[in-house]
Predict the 3D structure of the following.
Amino acid sequence: MDLKVLVRGGGDLASGIVLRLAHCGFKILVTELPNPLVVRRTVSFAEAVYNQKIKIEDITGEKIDSLAEVDRCWKNSNIPVLADPDQQVIQQFNPEILVDARMLKRDPLTELNWAPLIIGLGPGFSVNQNCHAVIETKRGPFLGRVLWQGEAEKDTGEPEAVGGYSFDRVIRAPINGVFHESHQISDLVDEGEIIGDVSGFPIRAPFKGVIRGLIHHNVPVNAGLKIGDIDPRCNPQLTKFVSDKALAIGGGVLEAILTKFQKL
């Protein structure tokens, strides 16, 4: 595929999209913050910003410092990941498709002339206002569906249940400070076990489970920010694979692209 896709955000949902599109041969560029705040780092291309490279299933993401390195990455079958907090590269890259996968859950202030096809994920996007198509991100019968009019379902603020746990499984920063980890993703922890701290304030596991996600070590955080995720299913292997939700959303993005460009 000669179509260029710019994916804004390199979190776990964005990475499911990247996997789907990479398997179909699209030319993809991922942009992120200089200090990404993603939690499911083992399945997030944003992790390349910290560690230069990240392999997710069969696709490798590689940090680059400028657009001049994009072609080299593509030739190596890698996904270039570029820190671009001020969205300066959009016009230079000139993508046919722009996918906003940052999950801001508010209006991203996107201009409709930034790309022939702009796809927004979930709440905050409205067709013909800040995107051309919306992908539903809420679990249920509409997950992954493409909306060519209207908007996605409103954000409820309630985390999805995993193994019967909803709010309890999400770990948030108790204070403003800097996060330090004492465990890693895929570690099995007991209820009450310390998994890290925010500027000395201990963070404890709410129940026995596997650490499914954990924000990067030494990153400044604000009180209330999601910094971890515990999975009660106690299966470390699940931390290595993109979720079914991410793949379903990726399928929706692919459908939107093929619908728009089916005559090419």
The chain is about 15% helix and 30% strand. The two ends are 10 Å apart (CA to CA).
